Amino acid sequence: xxxxxxxxxxxxxxxxxxxxxxxxxxxxxxxxxxxxxxxxxxxxxxxxxxxxxxxxxxxxxxxxxxxxxxxxxxxxxxxxxxxxxxxxxxxxxxxxxxxxxxxxxxxxxxxxxxxxxxxxxxxxxxxxxxxxxxxxxxxxxxxxxxxxxxxxxxxxxxxxxx
Length: 162
What we know:
The chain has a 3-stranded antiparallel sheet with strand order 1-3-2, with helices on one face. It is α+β, with helices and mostly antiparallel strands. It has 6 helices and 3 strands. The longest helix is centred in the first third of the chain and has 20 residues, at 2-21. The radius of gyration is 22 Å and the shape is flat. It has helices spanning 2-21, 52-55, 63-66, 102-106, 111-128, 147-159; strands spanning 44-48, 72-78, 85-91. The two termini are 39 Å apart.
């Protein structure tokens, strides 16, 4: 049984090494198409049910997006089917957000999380004039039984999903 587990570990290690080193292109499998490459900054997009003049009146962005400063690039464009405005945000190349300190990174707040949170809060401010919080103030008192739900809700605010 030990040799079976050891053999599986060796095979998995060889597959990983081949994937990372790029292989020789001998196989046509979709997962073996070369070395892993780092992507550029990713665009985060939200559709707001308002015209562009309401999204950025006078060229001023909503406070959550404006708080990110020059570290992000923001684009406004009409949404498909004349359904409002698309707000697209991405981190500029080499830019650092104020929230991206080492301490924030350790707690899980990387720049992408800050962008997602700012985009989500901006959408809520534009559409409803307030930032909505799930079940705030909480309807129950903190107990060990509901701690997993409280932790998931807190993570959901940062990541935008549970």
